[in-house]
Amino acid sequence: MKSFNKINIAIRKLLALAVLVFSLSACHKDLGNYDIDMPVDPQVTSLDTLYTATVGDSLKIDPKVKGPSGAQLELSWKISVMEGTDVTYVGPVMKIIFGLQAQRYSGLLTVHNKTNGMKYFHKFMVQGATEFNAGTSILSVENGVTQFSFLKPDGTLQARLYKAMQGKDLPPNPTNLFLLRNKNTGGTLLGYWIITKNAGIRLQSNTMMEEEKYPQTLKDNFFTPPDNLEVGSVVAHSQGVMMGVINGKFYGGTTSTWDQAATYGMFGLPAEGDYELAPSFAMAETGPGTYFIVFDKNKRQFQRINLYGAPAYFGTQYSVSSTTIFDPMNVGMDLVKLIQLNNADCFAYMKHTDGKIYELKFNVQFTGPFTFTPQHKREFIRQDLITADTKWQGAKNGVIYIASGNKVVIYNPINQEVRDVTTNFGGKSITMLKLSEDEKTLMVGTEGTIWFTNINTGEYGSFIKKIEGIPGNPMDMAIR
């Protein structure tokens, strides 16, 4: 037994000695005298970050790839499709027929060095496009028939495009043409809406065909469609939805879901309350939120609506600084037009029982505290300009453009100056009045023509150019 213990102890000593020797050898200084043969990266040039591909046409991407001597390189390509099958291709030059939709896609070029097994990745983007990717859409009325036309950048006018593509007429009595964009997601296009007095049609922005994924008509854009539709007026919100007065109630397109969802922009229930609104209203998108100034045509009072996810009706839940000038809760007149300039000064043009038009100026703070400040009430200086067909556009520089009959004037409400624009419109009645997005150009529509006039600083509507050959009277337009 003692002999066995001695052997066991000896074995343990030998094992401990071996571990010590191994540990000491591991601590030996690494002099780093190695010959490291790092693989040489293939050089990729002439690969752009963004390619534009016309739907139905060929897409060719031909980069220059130079590999190390003796390397066998293979190039593979992938265009990722969110809804559908990815596009894949193998070869030194990607050449395909682009059959995807007119959207933006992520692309990936993989350079595989089959000699050493290394792979190298290069990203790019592909923007699908159609012949409608840029140009001007025009809404007009020709002998009582609503027409939708498209002007290409080269000046070619595709008149009566909707009828040619769909084989049917649009609803009558058109009022607005919107190209909706969600500015919160970088300007994502959400389609065209053609709005008429009692209906509306939605078109895909890149094909001009009626939408298949989304509601095609204004009535279908309601979760619970009303029996009848009477559009007072609607506007485009920056999130790419419509908001406004329909059937005397206030509706707002839903933004509580992904903007590519089929329900995005649909109308739920109207803002709940006991009211019936006049068509004209003002929308202000401010830092704290969005609010609306509306007018109840039965109670003849200004009311407040705030956007809290969905429009919420607050009626006259606001304080009034003074009712000496006028009482916003008891105006006693009918609203003709309501304009707000720079999310600040508001001008309401009211028709008295004696037939005269009065101008009411006021300010509101409807994002808290909720206050209404009347500033003046006076007879409008040019009663002759106000008719049922008068067109209005309020500008950020504080002036109001008014079209009446065959003339357009610039009205300055500060000093009540009224100045004719410089351009002569040939004596034809004005049917459209629209500001460019930067408010440097005023577009004026007459029968068969849209006039572009310069209203930049120091200019008073001098002629720039015109679009001719429009079928009928222009009503609205959208530039893409």
Attribute tags:
about 475 residues, mainly beta, 5-stranded mixed beta sheet, about 45% strand, signal, WD40/YVTN_repeat-like_dom_sf, PKD-like
Mean pLDDT: 92
Strand order of the largest sheet: 2-9-8-5-6
Query: What is the fourth-level CATH superfamily of the domain at 43-129?
Result: Immunoglobulins
Q: What is the CATH architecture assignment of the domain at 43-129?
A: Sandwich
- Helical percentage: under 10%
Strand residue percentage: 35-45%
The CATH class assignment of the domain at 43-129 is Mainly Beta
Report the radius of gyration as a whole number of Å: 34 Å
- Helical element count? 2
Shape: elongated
Number of strands: 36
Q: Sheet bearing the most strands, described? A: 5 strands, mixed
Distance between the termini: 100 Å
CATH topology of the domain at 43-129: Immunoglobulin-like
Query: Residue ranges: pLDDT <50 for 5 or more in a row?
Result: none
Indicate the structural class.
mainly beta
